[in-house]
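for the writeup, i need someone to sanity check this before i put it in the appendix. the sequnce is what the collaborator sent (i think, or maybe the updated version? ugh). structure was predicted straight from it, no edits. if anything looks off just tell me and ill rerun, i have time this weekend
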Amino acid sequence: MRGGDAGTGTAGSVFVCLVLMFFTYAGLTGAALVLKRERVGAAADLAALAAAARAHQGEEEACSIAAETAMANGADLHDCALHVHTVTVTVASPTSLLPLTLRARARAGPAHDPTEEVE
């Protein structure tokens, strides 16, 4: 064994371990962002559906229930608009891993005849 070769295997092993750790972290971060995006999308869908159920009561009531539903699903209501009987909402939620705010938009209409009274 030559004196100049001592420790080269260790340096190579450390490098390979660091590369593997980086790719593992990147993969897990990507998976967490995809999961968060899906949750924000679900919060937007549920907020739009809840607001559409109250659309016959007016924009203020519909958007109020949309905000409550979004908050219950871990997002904040960013925008809410009622056009005739169709509600469009935008929700946002910050990520904990990166300095990003994920947004999702959803639109829903009435599940019943808007001329009929619902409870």
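The chain is about 50% helix and 20% strand. The mean pLDDT is 89.
thx in advance!!
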